């Protein structure tokens, strides 16, 4: 039997790859404080791990900035998914059954409108009375 802590660690690892706040800030050429502001403003998705520090899925950054449209996806998802971990799981999930393509991959390719539709459908399914 897998211990709950080991199970949680395995789940978090499956959502990665993860980078530290320091690495993300350096990649975006901003301070860690500015990155925290971006996190609080839902421009990027930070997940607080058990060590109390924020970590960031590396695929949300492209060309020295957050992937275009990520803030819009996070705004839609936040209607239903309150925990950042849930949004991280949604984005890291497979986009199509039987294909090794994630929603992150589609966002990085520019399929924003499709992802916004999917995010709204999933948010509606959670919040629908």
Q: Which structural class do you get from the secondary structure elements?
A: mainly alpha
Mass-distribution shape: globular
Radius of gyration: 15 Å
How much helix, percentage-wise, in residues? 40-55%
Q: Encode the helix/strand succession as letters.
A: HEHHEEEEHHHH
Number of separate helices: 7
Approximately how much beta-strand content do the residues carry? 5-15%
Flag low-confidence runs. Answer: none
- What's the number of extended β-strand segments? 5
Instruction: Give the N-terminus to C-terminus distance in angstroms.
Output: 37 Å
Number of domains: 1
Average pLDDT: 93
Report strand order across the widest sheet.
1-3-2
Written overview of the protein:
By secondary structure, the protein is mainly alpha-helical. It has one domain (4-127). Helices cover 53% and strands 11% of the residues. The strands form 2 sheets. The protein has a 3-stranded antiparallel β-sheet with strand order 1-3-2. A two-stranded antiparallel ribbon has the order 4-5. Strand 2 and strand 3 form a beta hairpin. Helix 2 (21-28) packs across helix 3 (32-40) and helix 4 runs parallel beside helix 7 (112-127). It is globular, with a radius of gyration of 15 Å.
């Amino acid at each position: 039997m897998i211990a709950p802590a080991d199970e949680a660690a395995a789940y978090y690892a499956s959502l990665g790859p993860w980078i530290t706040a320091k690495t993300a800030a350096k990649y975006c050429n901003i301070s860690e404080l500015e990155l925290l502001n971006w996190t609080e403003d839902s421009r990027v998705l930070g997940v607080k791990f058990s060590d109390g520090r924020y970590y960031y899925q590396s695929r949300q950054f492209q060309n020295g900035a957050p992937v275009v449209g990520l803030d819009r996806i996070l705004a839609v998802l936040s209607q239903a998914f309150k925990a950042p971990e849930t949004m991280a799981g949604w984005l890291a999930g497979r986009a199509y059954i039987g294909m090794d393509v994630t929603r992150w991959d589609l966002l990085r390719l520019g399929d924003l409108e499709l992802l916004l539709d999917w995010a709204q459908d999933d948010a509606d399914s959670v919040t629908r009375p």
